[in-house]
Amino acid sequence: MSKRLVVAVDGPSGSGKSSTARGVAQRLSLAYLDTGAMYRAMTWALLQAGIDLDDPAAIATAAQGVRLESGTDPSDPTIRANGADVADPIRSDEVTASVSQVAAVPEVREMLVALQRATIAENEHRIVVEGRDIGSTVAPNAEVKIYLVADPAARAARRAAEDGAADAAATELALARRDKIDSTRAASPLAKAPDAVVVDSTYLTLDEVIEAIVEIVGDVA
Q1: Is 0.85 surpassed by the pTM of this model?
Q2: 8 Å CB contact between 198 and 192
Q3: What is the Cα–Cα distance from 6 to 70, expressed in whole angstroms?
Q4: Cβ(28)–Cβ(217) under 8 Å?
Q5: How far, in Å, are 156, 161, 177 from residue 172 at the CA level?
Q6: How many CA atoms within 13 Å lie on the side-chain side of 22?
Q7: Which fold has domain 5-220?
Q8: 109-121: per-residue pLDDT in tens?
Q9: How far is the C-alpha of 143 from the C-alpha of 156, rounded, in Å?
Q10: pLDDT digit string (tens) for 169-187?
Q11: CB-CB contact of 119 with 70 (8 Å)
């Protein structure tokens, strides 16, 4: 059995985590887990059930009945909620606007962190995991921790392009609001782990970011 290699990739929305983490996983022949998709899938399921997302207690109760399944093939990652393929629906404006509310509920985070750790173990601790609290909470013993950043304008332009939005300025404001919620929540806030390596993707191509992280893995792992 190959030695364990958990690569934790954290950072704010629009920094390029998903594309980068998938690319690194493919280059290193590792599994891949998008924890943000898990929170989005939970949010989608709660919205479908008509749960009041202004009520943390209702969220905590309803979340217990949601079954999530994450595929870890970096070439074809999947996410299912209660048996339904939700890869496309979880990218809707409604889910995007609500996911931080759901992610801030401690009971939801406790449940999903346990599921994420189980997925890491199922993949023999050879996996790239991306999110906002991987290096600090989910996998604090990860062999490599990356904190991926980009300046606000670059992040907004990327997210607007992904979402087909015409107003990058409005997207930048939305990202700033989400950053504030994610970094100030009581449960597992967005934060750079003390031993994480900061990679700034602002002026780098995707291939350059992937290569930079692969080199870091080679130096550390």
Answers
A1: yes
A2: yes
A3: 17
A4: yes
A5: 5, 12, 9
A6: 14
A7: Rossmann fold (3.40.50)
A8: 999 999 999 999 9
A9: 30
A10: 777 677 777 777 777 777 7
A11: yes
